[in-house]
């Protein structure tokens, strides 16, 4: 699905055929599919309205108006039949049922980085709350929205919460001014508390492994610390130095080259194909000899949210690899082998890393850097894919299809779909 101003278009993912076209009341700020792909919600934050459309019955539609309370966030529940709206100033979360048209309210939600999370199986929801200048977490049963547990947290200013994929452990982390990661069980018991150091800036990002065995914590000190699920103790620290000296690490460096044009084919005015080839540059990967010095950008110390620390990290679907990005080395992606707890590969790009995401089915990493190229890494090697077409298509984000056969590449104003051929075993 894609939206332009107040129009919503639904496309077939395999053929890109336009299936449905809907018109909303105002400009669409956010869209989200239901879990069964039968409904799609469009949030119109300026008007405080959510419009819901049905794929099976195009004539059916639903409109939810929050009125004077306003609207700052909207999302589906895991069952795809309830919508959770967060009002302005985070006064409450309103749960709307599409089946019974009933309404439930959750008070005191906290305005934080990640305050509402669901377990992977969709059975439970955790909500970060702020009452009387103190942080709390409430756990609800999604089938009837009944409160299961409510407990306070040992945090000064709770920054976010995240369920383990198995739904047994909830991780909560404190503000960046206080390094603290807390691990709670489903019944609200504190299983463990982790603090790497005391005074400097603390946690910047976290990521669970798909097996729930590891919790990776990216910190402002440019390190990743990995906790295990048995003792919740640190098993290793992963450094991100500006110089790669290990001979067991492969460094792929992106290099640009101008295409060679046959002078006998030159004509005036040049054909469209010839003109595009004349002014386009191609890139490829070269393997650099260690030691390799990566481009290091010194952070500006007197500004808020400094570009320092590990701001992006993600595990591969098979739990074997971890991809990270150190914000002071913005052009590099680090790929760690979790089985050996060693750095395996570094991808050094020409431009700043905008986004990376793992294939949901196999260890294959897609990277974009704000150019018209997408980069793919797997244990077999690296490849650069040029997006065909006229004009400058700058890829700022990407998203894999659940099958791993294709992915959506998005620029500021357009999108395209990249299809990958699956090798037959």
Description:
The chain has three domains: 1-107, YVTN repeat-like/Quinoprotein amine dehydrogenase (Methylamine Dehydrogenase, Chain H); 112-239, 7 Propeller (Methylamine Dehydrogenase, Chain H), CATH 2.130.10.10; 245-259 and 267-424, Lipocalin (Beta Barrel), CATH 2.40.128. The protein is built from one helix and 38 strands. It has one helix at 272-279, and strands at residues 2-4, 7-11, 18-23, 30-33, 39-44, 49-54, 61-65, 73-76, 82-86, 92-97, 103-107, 116-118, 124-131, 134-141, 146-152, 160-163, 169-173, 181-185, 190-194, 203-208, 214-219, 223-228, 234-239, 243-244, 250-257, 282-288, 292-293, 310-315, 321-326, 332-337, 342-348, 355-358, 365-368, 373-378, 381-386, 397-400, 406-410, 415-419. It has a six-stranded mixed beta sheet, with no helix packed on it. A four-stranded antiparallel beta sheet has the order 4-5-6-7, with no helix packed on it. The longest helix has 8 residues, at 272-279. The model has no long low-confidence stretch (mean pLDDT 92). One of its GO terms (cellular component) is MWP complex. It holds the Pfam family WD40. InterPro entries: Centrosome-WD_assoc, Quino_amine_DH_bsu, WD40/YVTN_repeat-like_dom_sf, WD40_rpt.
